[in-house]
Amino acid sequence: MQELQTIAQQTLDALKAAGASDAQVTVTRHEQDEFTAEAGKLTLLRSTRAGGVSMKALVDGRKGVSTLNSLDAADIEQAAQECVQSAQGATPDKAEQIAPLTENGDFSSGVLSPDRETLFARTAEFLADVAREFPTISLESVTADYGHETAVVMNTHGVCFTDESGAYGFGAMFSAKEGADTSSFNNIGVSLEKLDEPFLRIGNHRLQLAQSAASVHTVPFGEKLVGTVVLTPECFGELLSEAVGTFCGDSAILDGTSPWKDKLGQAVAAPLLTVRCAPHDPRVVCGERICEGYRAQDADVIREGVLAHFLLSQYAANKTGHPRFPNGGENLIVEGGEEPLDKLIAGIERGLLVGRFSGGAPGGNGDFSGVAKNSFLIEHGQLTHAVSETMIAGNLAELLQNIRALSAETLFDGNVVLPYAVADGVTIS
């Protein structure tokens, strides 16, 4: 860490020598060990080491930025000069800012010393477990890794943060095959601090494999209707992230395109929905600790249906007069409801359990349309057949308003905490 601090200070010195009036730098070093399997067999073991520097310079309100994948002194010197030259040619903007000194700190999280032997054993165990329990599943790729990162953030106002973190990662992409028939691909992934459980038992892994195995033979949905969907935690998280980014992010608020631009403090979602971005939640593995030169803090985006914050950077906050969001907007946390999933499904006469949404980015107004993948027909309160290429369409703002239930079951994969969500008003065809 001391070496990175020295590099950070040298980078600041280089930026000031080149003409920066204010500057901020982030220096990182990342080490990763990775196991890879293809077609159910371990094929690769590799270790990688990388370092990099990102820098921001201000010259009389003009901004320049530069990044490089090197910690070499000569490379940093050149990048610093280019960064300042970029700033000198930019248009002045009073909203540009380097974080003031509010506090400094040293952070450490996760597992800092890996157990490579157990990681390898758990990966081999997963391959064997899937082959035994799900013979129709084809594991197209499996990756298990351990990543260790150190970072230093420093600026010309005296800010100095250090952060050291380490975590295991596991992910797989797969489909099911029976003769000439095959299901749509699916994927799983988690971040972990411990290796005390088989990978098959973590998160929704077993359930997702079982659903893929059941999706080889499908039926058409059979009609077009505006009805009820049950979004799996994975699908709910994807659509929720799209909604938050589309309605609350920098560009949407700066450009004035967000339908929520004038709705701070007003209801934008069902009262049962509270959405937090919470890197400090104990269920999050190695959450963000430093954001834009400040200590990252947990915060609500939506609180009991009411819009609590926009997800604004310091620049966008300065431009609009709204508060800066105190973290980078990751690690979505939505707590579950009181009723289990099977009881929620029992109350649906006809609808769709949506496992994955395959479609383009939503429009600026939140309109979305795409194919429901790994999805199942709900009839008379029961999950029945997997469905083929069924379309779903709607509007993300309306979807959040039309959520009528959240399941008691939640998925926490080390990055997010999410339940199943039941929503009305979605076009299914």
Structural description of this entry:
With 429 residues, the chain is of the alpha+beta class. It folds into two domains: 2-213, PmbA/TldD fold (2-Layer Sandwich), CATH 3.30.2290; 225-428, no CATH class. 24% of the residues lie in helices and 41% in strands. The chain is built from nine helices and 24 strands. It has helices at 2-18, 73-88, 116-133, 205-213, 233-248, 250-255, 314-320, 341-346, 396-401, and strands spanning 22-38, 41-59, 62-68, 105-110, 137-155, 160-178, 181-182, 186-192, 218-219, 225-231, 275-277, 290-291, 294-295, 299-303, 306-307, 332-333, 350-354, 356-359, 367-373, 376-379, 382-387, 390-395, 403-412, 417-428. Helix 1 packs parallel to helix 2 (73-88). It is globular, with a radius of gyration of 24 Å. The relative contact order is 0.13.
* Secondary-structure arrangement, i.e. CATH architecture of the largest domain: 2-Layer Sandwich
**Main CATH class of the largest domain:** Alpha Beta
Question: What is the straight-line distance between the termini?
Answer: 56 Å
Biggest sheet, in brief?
10 strands, mixed
Name the descriptors.
41% strand, globular, 2 domains, alpha+beta, PmbA/TldD fold, ten-stranded mixed sheet
Structure described in brief:
The chain has two domains: 2-213, PmbA/TldD fold; 225-428, no CATH class. It has helices spanning 2-18, 73-88, 116-133, 205-213, 233-248, 250-255, 314-320, 341-346, 396-401; strands at residues 22-38, 41-59, 62-68, 105-110, 137-155, 160-178, 181-182, 186-192, 218-219, 225-231, 275-277, 290-291, 294-295, 299-303, 306-307, 332-333, 350-354, 356-359, 367-373, 376-379, 382-387, 390-395, 403-412, 417-428. The protein is an alpha+beta fold.
